[in-house]
């Protein structure tokens, strides 16, 4: 089966067509139409991408090994944790959002829960102190108000 | 002013106490980054750029810091090749062939010291080559007009996959994707919004630093999670170093040959460090094999290491003079220059000679620091290798996020970083290379600008792109770069693979 490349080839082809179509819809720049405008280069790119994706559909490579669904869900959760960390930065501060994020990542990579939590707490505090006090970079202190 | 005087001035910059301090810090950080599993040189430099940027270092200091990191990462990479039999990046593959057998025989310390010396010779000779060749090429490049530049950028993409590249169309797709990302934002010359969808955050375009960290570092985290590689690997123990002057003399010819070959393949578009170390190793094997190659011959360590480092410095020639990087790590170095508001190209040698020559002098100083640092301190670096990735990768991810956050202080950049991480993971699964994506983002604005200049001057006539002899030559090389790998790439790759497999049998 060489399905992966075909699927992605189709997706990329859709992207190429949409991207190129959007480029033709750009408003005419102030000062009138010229022989080369903001749309010239994007249209060229959409043609190149289209050629590449058609090749992928016609002559696909061997399939890559995709992980099991459970692993994909886990990776999805990891992404969510990273997004939550970014979201939490502004509300609860650096230390409180980084500690659970690092701990979760350590735990999912195979460390014991206790050690994960310890690693998370220590690194967050050390990096916070290092960056705000020594390197003078502002990281949000949040509700801890250190 | 002659080259020598300029270089001397460069040394005056590079030998100031402040510069030496940054070179030292950079060398240590770089070696660590190169040695740590899961972090290549490109990755490491990428994570450090936003940090150096937001710390408000002067351009010269950050350049010295990051070039030392670059040189250090090349040194560090061989530690995992020799002790774990795992190359940190593709060019380090040939070092495994004789380095790991040496380590198994209880000569790990000697193998590491040999490769440190060979790396030094490789970088040293190639930096001399850089000093000689770069000004000549820069002068020549002043003849380039917009059409020639457009052809040159096309050449950079076409040859980026290298002669060992697998699927040229996937390189093409990757380059197109990168260039497409670069078009997001307000168009500089007409003021038209492109692909911003009225989101204020997209008006200035997408910062390539976010893309680099996301594509490389975050996707690497996903791969570690998927492969359950959190526990790290067993490494060969380190013995006490017994290296005599005779041993060094023994590997000297191999190192010199490797350095020259490496430099040449670093300068040539599309050859790169992989080919440099491969050619150096095979030639050395032809010249001096007595049946010991592949079983732990020190010359088999020295040749590819010298070649690898020679190519790394050689790759700086097209990067500094033309603004066209030849490899992943030099692409990241280009990112560093652009984010410091330094535009590489022929003008750089005229406009800011102090900066260019300061960096070149810093390369000399950095390499010497590395050699002096590496032989006594290799034990410390080896200790750090044994930190299991399950603690290391999350910490690296956190530091990378802090760097990205500190660019603008907005969480939106971090969402983008995660997005690029997912994109990097998927692209790597589909075997679309990531480096052309980065290069596309970096070169996109310049490439478009040159295309428009050329077309405006010719009043919309596209044939202007291939109307001068120089531009035709560039297009021919670009086409050859696309087509040759389809013919020879497979043969070369099986050869490289065979010599690697022959070892495990």
Automatic annotation (TrEMBL), chain A:
InterPro entries in the record: DUF1468
Transmembrane segments: 40-58, 65-85, 91-110, 117-135
Pfam hit, one: TctB
Record-annotated DUF1468 domain positions: 7-140
Signal peptide extent: none
Keyword ATP-binding assigned: no
Keywords from the named record: Membrane, Transmembrane, Transmembrane helix
Protein name: Putative tricarboxylic transport membrane protein
Organism name: Marinomonas communis
Lineage: Bacteria, Pseudomonadati, Pseudomonadota, Gammaproteobacteria, Oceanospirillales
From TrEMBL, chain B:
Transmembrane segment boundaries: 20-39, 45-71, 111-137, 149-165, 172-193, 205-225, 248-268, 322-343, 355-375, 395-418, 425-444, 464-488
Every DUF112 domain range: 20-439
Keywords: Membrane, Transmembrane, Transmembrane helix
A Pfam family that the UniProt record links to this protein: TctA
Name of the featured protein: Tripartite tricarboxylate transporter permease
Organism (species): Marinomonas ostreistagni
Source taxonomy: Bacteria, Pseudomonadati, Pseudomonadota, Gammaproteobacteria, Oceanospirillales
């Amino acid at each position: 089966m060489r399905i992966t490349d075909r699927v992605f080839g189709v997706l990329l082809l859709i992207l190429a067509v949409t991207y190129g179509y959007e480029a033709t819809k750009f408003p005419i720049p102030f000062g009138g139409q010229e022989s080369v405008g903001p749309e010239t280069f994007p249209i060229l790119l959409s043609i190149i991408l289209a050629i590449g994706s058609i090749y992928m559909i016609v002559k696909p490579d061997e399939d890559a090994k995709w992980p099991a669904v459970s692993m994909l869900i886990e990776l999805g959760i990891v992404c969510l944790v990273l997004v939550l960390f970014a979201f939490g930065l502004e509300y609860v501060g650096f230390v409180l959002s980084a500690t659970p994020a690092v701990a979760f990542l350590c735990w999912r990579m195979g460390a014991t829960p206790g050690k994960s939590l310890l690693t998370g707490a220590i690194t967050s505090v050390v990096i916070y102190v290092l960056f705000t006090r020594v390197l003078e970079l502002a990281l949000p202190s949040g509700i801890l108000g250190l | 002013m002659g080259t020598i005087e300029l270089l001397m001035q460069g040394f005056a910059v590079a030998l100031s106490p402040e510069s030496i301090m940054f070179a030292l810090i950079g060398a240590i950080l770089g070696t660590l980054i190169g040695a740590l599993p899961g972090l290549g040189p490109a990755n490491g430099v990428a994570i450090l750029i936003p940090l150096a940027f937001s710390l408000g270092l002067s351009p010269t200091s950050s350049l010295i810091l990051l070039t030392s990191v670059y040189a250090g990462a090349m040194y560090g990479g061989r530690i995992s090749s020799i002790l774990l039999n795992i190359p940190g990046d593709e060019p380090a593959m040939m070092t495994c062939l004789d380095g790991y057998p040496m380590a198994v025989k209880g000569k790990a310390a000697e193998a590491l010291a040999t490769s440190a010396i060979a790396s030094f010779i490789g970088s040293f000779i190639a930096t001399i080559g850089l000093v000689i060749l770069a000004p000549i090429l820069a002068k020549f490049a002043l003849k380039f007009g917009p059409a020639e530049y457009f052809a040159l950028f096309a050449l950079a993409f076409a040859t980026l996959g290298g002669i060992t590249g697998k699927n040229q169309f996937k390189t093409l797709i990757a380059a197109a994707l990168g260039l497409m990302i670069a078009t997001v934002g307000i168009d500089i010359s007409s003021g038209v919004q492109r692909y911003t969808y009225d989101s204020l955050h997209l008006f200035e375009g997408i910062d390539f630093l976010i893309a680099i960290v996301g594509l490389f570092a975050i996707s690497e985290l996903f791969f570690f999670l998927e492969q359950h590689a959190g526990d790290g690997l067993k490494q060969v123990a380190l013995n006490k170093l017994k290296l005599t002057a005779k041993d060094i003399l023994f590997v000297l010819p191999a190192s010199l040959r490797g350095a020259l070959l490496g430099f040449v393949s670093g300068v040539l578009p599309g050859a790169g460090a992989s080919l440099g170390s491969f050619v150096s190793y095979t030639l050395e094997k032809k010249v001096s094999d007595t049946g010991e190659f592949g079983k732990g011959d020190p010359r088999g360590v020295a040749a590819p290491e010298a070649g690898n480092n020679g190519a790394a410095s050689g790759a700086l020639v097209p990067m500094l003079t033309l603004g066209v990087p030849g490899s992943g790590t030099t692409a990241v170095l280009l990112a560093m220059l652009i984010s410091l508001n330094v535009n590489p190209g022929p003008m750089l040698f005229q406009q800011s000679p102090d900066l260019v020559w300061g960096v070149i002098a810093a390369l000399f100083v950095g390499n010497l620091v590395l050699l002096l640092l590496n032989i006594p301190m290799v034990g410390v670096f080896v200790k750090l290798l044994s930190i299991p990735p399950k603690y290391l990768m999350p910490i690296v991810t956190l530091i990378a996020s802090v760097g990205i956050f500190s660019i603008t202080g907005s969480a939106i950049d971090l969402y983008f970083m995660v997005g690029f991480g997912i994109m990097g993971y998927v692209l790597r699964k589909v075997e679309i290379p990531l480096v052309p994506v980065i290069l596309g983002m970096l070169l996109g604005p310049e490439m478009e600008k040159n295309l428009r200049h050329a077309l405006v001057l010719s009043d919309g006539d596209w044939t202007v792109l291939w109307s001068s002899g120089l531009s035709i030559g560039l297009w021919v090389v670009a086409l050859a770069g696309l087509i040759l790998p389809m013919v020879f790439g497979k043969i070369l790759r099986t050869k490289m693979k065979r010599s690697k497999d022959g070892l495990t049998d």
